[in-house]
Amino acid sequence: MCHQKTLRFAIEADAALSTLENALAIIRRTGISLDGLRIAPGTDGMDVWMRLEAPEEDALTLCRMRLHNVVGVLPIREFPRPVGLALQAAGQAA
Question: How many C-beta atoms lie closer than 10 Å to residue 73's C-beta?
């Protein structure tokens, strides 16, 4: 059984590319599958949505913890469902 999560976070605009590269490297090193990526301009810099999949829940938890330590990554929100549904829910909440 595979576990899926969608993570939403902002990255500071000053070093957006290097911050995103660091986040993608964490995902790759953790052995997690990146099923979707969406980047858009946001109020705090760049908004990033990542849809992740892993065979074990612990890998997704470890990934999130490591992303918290990346300089330039602002607070992370987690959605336990596909990004399309998470985006709809976020749009309705706004």
Answer: 22
At residue 80, the pLDDT reads 78
Q: Tell me if residue 70 falls in helix, strand or coil.
A: coil
8 Å CB contact between 74 and 9: yes
pLDDT at 88: 56
pLDDT in tens, 43-65: 878 999 999 999 999 999 999 99
Q: What is the greatest pairwise CA distance in the chain?
A: 39
Distances in Å between the Cα of 61 and the Cα atoms of 17, 42, 57 are 24, 25, 6
The burial of 62, by beta-carbon neighbours within 10 Å (0-12 exposed, 13-18 middle, 19 or more buried), is given as middle
Specify whether the CB–CB gap between 94 and 47 falls below 8 A.
no
Inform me whether the pLDDT recorded for 89 exceeds 60. Answer: no
